[in-house]
Specification:
This protein is 19% helix and 27% strand. The protein is of the alpha/beta class. The protein has two domains: 109 residues, no CATH class; 148 residues. The strands form three sheets. The protein has a six-stranded parallel sheet with strand order 6-7-8-10-12-13. The longest helix is centred in the middle third of the chain and has 8 residues. The chain is elongated. About 3% of the residues have low confidence.
Amino acid sequence: MINLEELILNLSIIRSNKNYIDGIQLYDDILIYMSRLNKFTFNIYTNVDKKNVGIVFSSNEDIQRSFRRKEYGSVASPIEIFTRENQRKCHNYSLPYKFKSRCHIYSLPYQFRTYDFLNNSFQGGIFVNVQFLVMTDFCPFEHNFFNVISQSFPLLKKMDIMNKEPQKDKQKSLSFIKFSYLIYLDLQGAHADYAEQILVDKYCHLPCLLNLNIDYESLVLVTNNFTNNATRLTCSKLTSLRINEPFVPPKNFYQYFPLL
């Protein structure tokens, strides 16, 4: 591919007994063979297998230094180190994979439609191209963290929240959140606190939401057995409700969800 002028690379890999992918390896393995390349956009997750022993992994500073070549431009490189407690966050690969850490490197500005594994370490920014977001963490998401998310991902259409930890300091005042284009919301792996914050209309405005995936227990709790007026407006607009467990709808169920 010596004549290639533009390359878009979206990659998620598992590594055993190797360091994270960085700018030096990308140059040695790819760029050096593409003399005519004038635009390189990338989004790379390196998932490090737990079996790695005796390897000193790069720090964020090390990775940033590896991207000093002018071909790269600005690069972000957040790193996650997994402990026994938060290991379950590595959910996207089948067993027996267990990971020690993950490094995410990507070109700035971010050009991809999907952003996976966003957690509490997220520092904000503007990601106008992202339409699909996966949020996951072992530590609770703070109430106002969702305000950062709504501002950082203004064109978000699908959001998946995976965090079973209850929110802390729920008595704090909340800033009003608006997800103007959100169509699909997956709360199947989320604590009921997040369902409350997002589905209660005085906390969050969801003018386009049509599809909801949620645990039945969380749904009953946040809607107060389908009588809570604070969530009625949002729920009345839904055209699809997915509950991954058998249940018998009470008499007022379809009154609460008239479009189902």
